[in-house]
Amino acid sequence: MNRPPQGWPKTLRQWARTPLPWSLAALLALTLGMPALRPLFAALFPELDRPVYQQDSFAALVLAHVALVAASSAVAIVAGSVLGVAVCRPAGRAFRPLLESLLAMSQSFPPVAVLAVAAPLIGFGEAPALIALVLYGVLPIAQGTLAGLDAVSAATREVAQGLGFAPWQSLWRVELPLAAPVILAGVRTSVVINIGTATIASTVGAKTLGSPIIVGLSGFNTAYVIQGAVLVALLAICCDQLFERLQRRLSAWQPRQEDTAESAALPPLAGH
Amino acid sequence: MTVRNPVPLLLVGLMLLAAWTLPLLSHAPNRLLSGRGIQLATLLHGPRLLLLLPAVPLLAAPWLPPRRGCCVLLASAASLWLAALTGLAGAEAARLAGGADTLARTSLGGGYWALFILGALLANDALRRLGGAGGRLALAQLALYLPLLWLLLSGRLEALSLLKEYANHRDSFDEALGRHLQLVGLTLLPAGVGGAALGLWAFCRPRARGVLFAALNIVQTVPSLALFGLLIAPLAALGRLLPGSGLAGIGLPPALLALTLYGLLPMARSTLAGLQQIPDGVLEAARGMGLSAGQRWRRVELPLALPVLISGLRVTAIQAVGLAQLAALIGAGGFGAIMFQGLSGSALDLVLLGVIPVVALAVAVDALFKLLLSLLEVGPR
Amino acid sequence: MIEFSQVSKTFDGQRAVEALDLVIPQGELAVLIGTSGSGKSTTLKMINRLVEYDSGTLRFAGEDVRHFRPETLRRRMGYAIQSIGLFPHWTVEQNIATVPQLLNWPKPRIRDRVTELLALLHLEPEQYRGRFPHQLSGGQQQRVGVARALAADPDVLLMDEPFGALDPVTRAALQDELRRIHALSGKTIVLVTHDIDEALGLAQRIVLLERGRIVQQGSPLELLTRPASDAVRDFIGRSDIGIKLLALERVAARARQGEAAAGEPIAAAATLREALSAFVTRGADRLPVIDAQGRPAGTLHFADLLPPAP
């Protein structure tokens, strides 16, 4: 059983398996210390006058990015899990195929399409970004909730009923805790997708870590592109790894799994 | 009367609400002025009322018994309703254009899109009730849009601003289509082969799984725009080192590389899962009957793992269709180029011209793979 | 304690239970047995309203079960099923404490009760309290399941094939355990099984069901000696009814007091079936008998295996 160590990694293998410490350290260092790397970027791209993005501080961009993702994910977590639970209850069961159709259909819509359609309708800026982020955040969470509740065995549900749990007690104390690791996997996918969508949201005028990338791409300033890309990649990896640890903690009651394909995150939706 | 199915009740209710509150069309004398909304109700008079005919079974849907015949009726009514709605919009746009005034623009409004999506969901609900395997369901879902396709090809919708944009951008549209298909096609081959090889390697070497999937997961975690961006500098440097190689930081090479990298994880994961789900007993029996390693691979392992493998390829393909939309930002073209052009001009019709084909492409790819999978299931092993 | 009168249940037009009359008095261990689809599980689940019956009346403690809130009713009845029924995300302690917690017992009382039950079921309390179900063997899981069913000192214990998933050795040990608990607590127990040996070994009353109807009910001895029909005879195993009869009686009942014999002794608590096996394997026609303390308790002759002449 290859169990990733919880403490500081000691070997190269462990370093590769636990990206959280180094990615977190790198994210912090680069967020605060990017201007100090000016000589490096100047040397790499001698043709550029301004080799470091300066329209906003990187700290402000990281904060704006995180705020956008956190706000939309909070809404998405509530909406997604409520939807998922609702269609698993006797009263809402009839609507389950409808939700599943919606989830399947949405896989054909890339998030950037939602952004691009929303922007001309409701104006540029944070608003279309929030809409797209919430919409795309809900899907994996609803999917995870469905999968998690499905995985609770009928015997467990029957025994909960047989021991005298009221329906909501069974849901709250037995079914949801058992489904929690899978729901959390959905949240993890959702947040990672949202970090990506928030990056693209800078094409519709939201200020995020995607801004240096877009400015750099349109102004042929590869240094800007690298600065934004490295930070947003690190941010996504850090969040992903944080969720991984949380998932591990929540599933402490499960027998340790071997590394299988399934132990990785849920399959991603179309491009983020 | 008792409601037999609450789903159509909700959808039909929402449809009525959308028809009531949102404009079906938006008409502007020219591109610069903002449009005037036109409700569905104001368009329905005289012989046009006949167009409401397919909506009648839809309105009755909540009370229809869940029989086969009723489901078929509902699905076809919904399909016709989508076409009727679109045809009505096209006819009204043609009437408003009046021939001479080519500057006038009539575009589809929020009401149209809401009614369209709700109608499609209603049709889906009816088809799901019919049951049937994945492949047949996928085909039936595609068939829903045949009346619409006929309408489009017959030229009856040409006065709509979306189609006008198409006429204006026909060349770049065709080019975008070719490039988009090229991006997806050229991704599938290396991602499929490479991902399958990685999955096979992980299957044979369980100790390598942890590191492999951790690494692939990191790639998958990196936002696509960042990955595109990160590949620019190294590929540009390589291009300078090898002038004849055709490598460059902008354009096709970084886009293909990024799409391929993204495709590796779903492919490797499903290859491993496909091989893992073969029961040990089956392999042991094959060994016990004296099949050689090669024979076991060809006659037992591969056929049993193939469906899961193909579903991995399906995820990779759909993902590539969506991701290719972003490749326009690094100069790789595709429908993203049209979409971003529309975005920078705040021209919704142009944005839609870049978005709708991508959605249609994703739906078609999905249906294609589902069909393939269902053929594998019923066909001889 | 539990009275069915003319109770019927239909699932989608399929009769599951038909006009069932059955009285299970206080303190009895009743076993419902039958092939799959005979309606035995449905009968059990109607008692705690996991399945609602269509017609007739079903009384618990003199009152119609429909007069209780389902949750209240279920909390007065322990419920155990095959080992998969433990909540995997809760420790052994939390699992056992389920119903006491639902009934809002004070914490110290719950803790004492868990300790008491773990000891009763021969699980070292401090060692097992904090474990998760997946860290236990199948037999241990089932012990925890039984402890959980007993936790709130219910009036009735309902058990749906509780030992179905266990290997024969563990199963026999748990059957002994259940007999002991029943003798100690005097609880009314209703157990569903398809294993005739389990039924003969545990039951005070066996209720044999076939297609939703009672074919025969009575003590194990009655079932073996006076089967109501050929179908019953087939079900209990036509060819080894004699052997099964021997399994119902103990050596102590037939041993000749005051007589002594040589050779390896047999326990007075052993069944006559075990004695028969000892006769055959040792090639002897008499066996010395010893009691639980190891003192001589007479001799058993081979001829004593035959039932005393009426």
UniProtKB/TrEMBL annotation, chain A:
Keyword DNA repair found: no
One annotated Gene Ontology cellular component of this protein: plasma membrane
Recorded superkingdom: Bacteria
Family: Belongs to the binding-protein-dependent transport system permease family.
Species of the source: Pseudogulbenkiania subflava DSM 22618
Name of this chain's protein: Osmoprotectant transport system permease protein
Membrane topology: Multi-pass membrane protein
GO biological process, one term: transmembrane transport
UniProt cross-references to Gene3D superfamilies, sorted A to Z: MetI-like
Name of one Pfam family that matches: BPD_transp_1
UniProt keyword annotations, A-Z: Membrane, Transmembrane, Transmembrane helix, Transport
Domain ABC transmembrane type-1: 62-243
Transmembrane regions listed in the UniProt entry: 58-88, 109-139, 224-243
Record InterPro entries: ABC_transp_perm/SBD (IPR051204), MetI-like (IPR000515), MetI-like_sf (IPR035906)
Primary location group: membrane
Subcellular location: Cell membrane
TrEMBL record, chain B:
Family, similarity comment: Belongs to the binding-protein-dependent transport system permease family.
Keywords: Membrane, Transmembrane, Transmembrane helix, Transport
Organism listed in the record: Pseudogulbenkiania subflava DSM 22618
Lineage: Bacteria, Pseudomonadati, Pseudomonadota, Betaproteobacteria, Neisseriales
Domain ABC transmembrane type-1: residue ranges: 177-369
The protein, known as: Osmoprotectant transport system permease protein
Membrane topology value: Multi-pass membrane protein
Transport recorded as keyword: yes
Main localization (coarse): membrane
InterPro entries: ABC_transp_perm/SBD, MetI-like, MetI-like_sf
Automatic annotation (TrEMBL), chain C:
Pfam family, one: ABC_tran
Similarity comment: family membership: Belongs to the ABC transporter superfamily.
GO MF entries: ATP binding; ATP hydrolysis activity
Swiss-Prot/TrEMBL keywords: ATP-binding, Cell membrane, Membrane, Nucleotide-binding, Transport
Organism: Pseudogulbenkiania subflava DSM 22618
Protein name: Osmoprotectant transport system ATP-binding protein
GO process annotations (BP): quaternary ammonium group transport
ABC transporter domain residues: 2-236
Domain of life: Bacteria
Matching InterPro entries: AAA+_ATPase (IPR003593), ABC_transporter-like_ATP-bd (IPR003439), ABC_transporter-like_CS (IPR017871), CBS_dom_sf (IPR046342), P-loop_NTPase (IPR027417)
